[in-house]
Amino acid sequence: MSPSKIDSRKGCVRPPHFDILWLPRAAMRSVEGDPSDCVLVVGVSRPKMALAIITVMLISLFLTFHMIYDSALNSLQTNTQDHTRPPLLLLSRRLYPAAARRLPQAIIMGVRKCGTRALLEMLYLHPMVQKASGEVHFFDRDENYNKGLEWYRMQMPHSYHGQITIEKSPSYFVTPEVSD
Fold first, then answer.
1. Of 5, 48, 113, 168, catalytic
2. Are residues 116 and 63 part of one domain?
3. Residue 126: in which H helix or E strand, if any?
4. Among 21, 82, 114, 123, which one is least packed by beta carbons within 10 Å?
5. pLDDT, tens digit, for every residue of 78-106?
6. Could you give the count of Cα atoms lying within 13 Å of 53 in the half-sphere of its Cβ?
7. Bind-site residues for 3'-phosphoadenylyl sulfate
8. Which catalytic residues are annotated (predicted)?
9. Is the dihedral of CA 141, 145, 149, 152 positive or negative?
């Protein structure tokens, strides 16, 4: 191909033409609270391209608002519906079919700062040991003791047959009733 044909082909394909103009702040009217120093003014020399860009922007704006509205409406509908939750006993049976909440087979008693937590954590490393999640205070607090053994058992973790359930409290020796 001759160089003149290549040059003529380059002239046929024109990139989109954008007119970009920067206006300094001094050329604009002052607007209260406007922190910008310059404004970018973009002019499109092709009206069809400008129409296409505006159409795409409007459609994307519409879809964004539509998605926000639908998600808000959906969350309102789910919050107003009554959720029928299965009883806790049936739920625990479904999650742990062979496990049950048992009264502890061992209770670690001590005084504060004597290492009851460290002992419990070391014993819990064994796979056949389950521990209560917190201090239950069943024997040293009358309000918990009056709730009965069934309440105490429900504070224990699920354990399988053969596992040892352990509960600890450093408070059992600090109450006045200890000497009794």
1. 113
2. no
3. none
4. 82
5. 666 555 555 555 555 566 567 888 899 98
6. 11
7. 113-117
8. 113
9. negative
